[in-house]
Task: inverse folding
């Protein structure tokens, strides 16, 4: 099972995005040190420079990183018999608030949403409440999603996914909802380990308008200059689906069959699954809109075929009416085709292809796929961990071991090759090494190794990204005085995040002392995945945390000595290399 | 249930006057609700805190929508004048009263059954749905819902040329309150705004749910007071019944006095300073809000900052013991421009 199986819940609405983007620029932020570039200037100087950069592209220095659904509701369900809009769950609000954080703030392909829960419905009514087990990860970024609207990143769409294990993370109160009862039954199946939420966000608007101008930037800069709090959240459309999470599927990235866009295809990569007598194609991230009004590009009827050895087997046709704007909004881009037994057998064992009316292939299956269980990874300098890679062959466990090339993007290290076991998985050790951020494209193969990829194409490639924060042992060793804590820890956040003035003035010793207990709790590493973790950008170094906690403990009168080990101190001297 | 004498709605000036009073009414609900939230102990009563917090945000949007309507028909909202800022304990605007016609006096109360009962009284619809133990209806005077209905009807009689909102006079849902605010440019949008205000506050006559499928304010306060979740119940004619406990801890409250404006802070400089900081932040909030709804929408960011300052000042105040006492005082919500 997966979200492409049934039962399913469809939702749609809008979502705000409110990241601080000052750290997207090297002039303001040093990725290697994980700190803002203050130089000899003050916090006020830094904030003023950030304000002045608004007219040069820094569209949200007062961001909060919060990302929230609004006007988002359950719009349909499918219990196995097709779309229904008469279920008790239809129309209930879908609530979500997360923190949008780029693992690598310079990049565009490493976004994550840290959150605590998602809910459909309210307490006392038909409700699905899902508590976070893993953060939501952005993948398959499609920078050709809109042919007519290209403001900033408004052109792009993103696939987000997370999963919730049952029973630990899920509460289901059907109260007359057929689909919730069906999901509860599905969770009793031994092959189902929980529920997965997959959503697509697209058509992002900035400055509260579809056509921002230089005047909008100038007005924002002027508003910031006159004091107060002036976030500038963008907003996207969102469609999504919630369905069963199959045993063996990774939680954060889709592991369905991948129908990859061919060269010059007007539509982008899709996912697919065969089961229950039908083929489900996930076009959620595929067909572009042609402008801000969300009209879908009409590429004519789409022919779906299985390219079997004995000849193509037609699986069905997807007319424009099945992927136009209203169809997309109704089923989040999922299209179901009923199959007879022969078609189902062909679709299971042969590559699936989607062609236009002239027979030209627009999407062709990548039979071998690979994903990482933890696709976005944070380590501290010198730390190491293991990442599980899972390979699939047409969406199922591979028939024989698969090789995977891990090719660093833009880095000097040679590609690494690993081979899975019979179960299609392989555990890869990863070392934090030096501080910074790295990414590897994952390429599965059998037979002759393919040439290393020239770069990352997010719609076609899966990848693993790593962020290593510095150890900062010298900071850990400092006296836990207010002056040191402020200069070495809090000043960084105060400079980069003016929004913090709302909740806690980080330069105000009295306020920070009053909130020392809370600060200590929210900066603890075991709260890293929490919505309220501080700092929201997840760049607190181990040395900074050590100093901060020693100070908090002294203020609270509850000394709990923490120190770095000798090995950790040694590692700061650059003894480790990154990689595998 | 609170009631008011029927208001004249014959002229545009009558409607402007009524809208200004509607703004004052929405404003007057915020301090008692905030006072209850500020008094809750850290980590306690999360369900109640989140319910009241959501109501506060909706009341803010109701006030902003009323401002948008007033601006749309050529009025000018007033928020930063002593004459429009309610005092606590004190009456609501229009001397709104109970069924007996006597003015209803609103107090600033710490989180308690009494505070929730007061809020329920403020939010009670004309004909609340009775679940297991419904509240009585005594149809005299005009309810808040009827007041808004009369206003809606009157606005519908205005000729198109009256709807001429000056540029920059409308508060939109960017950058704050996404999806909850919209410009009012004609009768249709004004009517939508009024329906939203009424349904979020009172629900409908047939359902405790507002237009978004969430519980209306009245029923959310009732959930807290009863410490019970209002749940769907197909076996009941009205479709709902009182379910399991919500998880209210009436002891999870700081020892905060009621109505701090009545307390004498003389000789207690720490508590007085905390009060002054609360009043200063509240005053700035009103001043900035007024600017934001009268042609300077960019000042909304200053108002929001002041709101956060008020929150921080209140956190300090409720944790500052009164001299010679184990109790403390929350913010009195006084408009004191001399502090700014």
Result:
């Amino acid at each position: 099972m997966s979200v492409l199986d049934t039962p399913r819940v469809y939702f749609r609405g809008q979502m705000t995005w409110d990241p601080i983007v000052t750290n997207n620029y090297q002039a303001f932020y040093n990725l290697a040190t994980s700190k803002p570039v203050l130089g000899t200037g003050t916090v006020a100087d830094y904030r003023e420079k950030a304000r002045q950069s608004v007219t040069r592209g820094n569209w949200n220095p007062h961001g909060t990183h919060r990302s929230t659904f609004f006007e988002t509701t359950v719009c349909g369900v499918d219990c196995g018999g097709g779309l229904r809009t008469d279920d008790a769950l239809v129309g209930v609000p879908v609530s979500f608030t997360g923190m949008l954080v780029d693992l690598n703030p310079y990049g565009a392909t490493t976004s994550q949403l840290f959150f605590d829960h998602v809910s459909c419905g309210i307490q006392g009514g038909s409700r699905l409440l899902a508590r976070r087990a893993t953060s939501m990860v952005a993948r398959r970024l499609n920078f050709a999603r809109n042919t007519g609207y290209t403001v900033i990143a408004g052109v792009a769409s993103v696939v987000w996914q997370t999963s919730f294990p049952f029973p630990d993370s899920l509460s289901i109160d059907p109260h007359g909802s057929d689909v919730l009862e069906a999901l509860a039954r599905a969770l009793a199946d031994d092959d189902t380990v929980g529920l997965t939420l997959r959503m697509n966000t697209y058509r992002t608007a900035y400055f509260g308008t579809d056509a921002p101008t230089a005047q909008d930037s100038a007005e924002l800069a002027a508003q910031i200059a006159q004091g107060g709090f002036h976030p500038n959240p963008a907003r996207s459309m969102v469609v999504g689906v919630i369905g069963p999470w199959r045993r063996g599927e990774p939680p954060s990235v889709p592991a369905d069959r991948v129908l990859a866009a061919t060269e010059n295809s007007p539509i982008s990569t899709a996912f697919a699954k065969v089961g229950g007598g039908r083929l489900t194609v996930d076009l959620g991230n595929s067909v572009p809109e042609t402008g801000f009004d969300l009209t879908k590009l009409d590429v004519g009827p789409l022919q779906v075929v299985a390219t079997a050895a004995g000849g193509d087997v037609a699986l069905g046709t997807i007319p424009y009416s099945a992927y136009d704007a209203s169809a997309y909004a109704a089923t989040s881009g999922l299209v179901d085709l009923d199959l007879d037994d022969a078609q189902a057998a062909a679709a299971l064992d042969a590559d699936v292809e989607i062609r236009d009316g002239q027979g030209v292939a627009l999407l062709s299956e990548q039979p071998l796929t690979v994903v990482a269980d933890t696709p976005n990874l944070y380590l501290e300098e010198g730390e190491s961990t293991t990442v599980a890679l899972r390979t699939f062959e047409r969406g199922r466990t591979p028939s024989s071991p698969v090789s995977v090339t891990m090719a660093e993007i833009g880095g000097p290290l040679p590609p690494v090759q690993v081979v899975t076991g019979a179960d299609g998985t392989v555990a890869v050790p990863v070392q934090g090494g030096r501080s910074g951020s790295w990414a590897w494209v994952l390429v599965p193969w059998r037979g002759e190794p393919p040439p290393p990829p020239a770069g990352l194409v997010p719609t076609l490639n899966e990848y693993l990204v790593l962020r290593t924060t510095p150890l900062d042992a010298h900071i850990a060793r400092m006296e836990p005085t207010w002056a040191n804590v402020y200069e070495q820890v809090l000043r960084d956040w105060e400079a980069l995040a003016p929004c913090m003035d709302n909740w806690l003035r980080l330069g105000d010793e009295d306020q920070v002392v009053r909130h020392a207990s809370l600060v200590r709790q929210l900066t603890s590493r075991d709260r890293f995945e929490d919505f309220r973790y501080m700092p929201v950008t997840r760049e607190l170094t181990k040395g900074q945390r050590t100093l901060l906690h020693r100070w908090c403990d002294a203020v609270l009168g509850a000394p709990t000595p923490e120190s770095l080990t000798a090995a950790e101190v040694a590692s700061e001297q650059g003894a480790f290399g990154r990689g595998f | 249930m609170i009631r008011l004498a029927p208001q004249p709605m014959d002229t545009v000036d009558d409607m402007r006057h009524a809208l200004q009073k509607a703004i004052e009414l929405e404003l007057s609900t915020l301090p008692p609700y905030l006072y209850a939230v500020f008094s809750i102990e850290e980590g306690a009563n999360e369900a109640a805190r989140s319910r009241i917090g959501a109501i506060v945000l909706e009341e803010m949007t109701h006030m902003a929508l009323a401002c948008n309507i007033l601006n749309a028909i050529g009025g000018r909202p007033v928020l930063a004048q002593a004459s429009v800022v309610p005092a606590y304990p004190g009456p609501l605007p229009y001397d709104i009263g109970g069924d007996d016609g006597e003015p209803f006096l609103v107090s600033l109360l710490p989180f308690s059954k009494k505070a929730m009962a007061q809020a329920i009284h403020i939010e009670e619809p004309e004909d609340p749905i009775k679940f297991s133990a419904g509240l009585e209806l005594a149809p005299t005077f005009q309810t808040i819902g009827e007041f808004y209905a009369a206003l809606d009807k009157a606005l519908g009689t205005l000729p198109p040329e009256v709807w001429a909102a000056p540029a920059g006079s409308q508060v939109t849902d960017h950058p704050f309150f996404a999806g909850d605010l919209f410009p009012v440019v004609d009768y249709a949008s004004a009517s939508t705004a009024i329906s939203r205000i009424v349904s979020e506050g009172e629900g409908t006559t047939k359902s405790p749910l507002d237009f978004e499928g969430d519980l209306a304010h009245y029923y959310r306060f009732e959930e807290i007071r009863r410490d019970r979740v209002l749940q769907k119940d197909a076996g009941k004619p009205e479709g709902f019944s009182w379910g399991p406990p919500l998880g209210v801890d009436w002891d999870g409250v700081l020892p905060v006095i009621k109505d701090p404006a009545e307390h004498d802070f003389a000789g207690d400089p720490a508590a007085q300073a905390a009060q002054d900081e609360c009043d200063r932040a509240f005053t700035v909030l009103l001043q900035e809000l007024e600017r934001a709804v009268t042609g300077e929408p960019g000042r909304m960011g200053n108002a929001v900052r002041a709101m956060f300052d008020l929150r921080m000042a209140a956190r300090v105040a409720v944790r500052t013991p009164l001299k010679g006492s184990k109790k403390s005082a929350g913010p009195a919500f006084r408009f004191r421009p001399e502090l700014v």
About this structure: The beta strands of chain B are 3-4, 90-91, 105-106, 142-143, 230-232, 240-242. The CA atoms of residues 9 and 150 of chain B lie 7 Å apart. Residues 12-38 of chain B form the longest helix (27 residues). The longest strand of chain B covers residues 230-232.
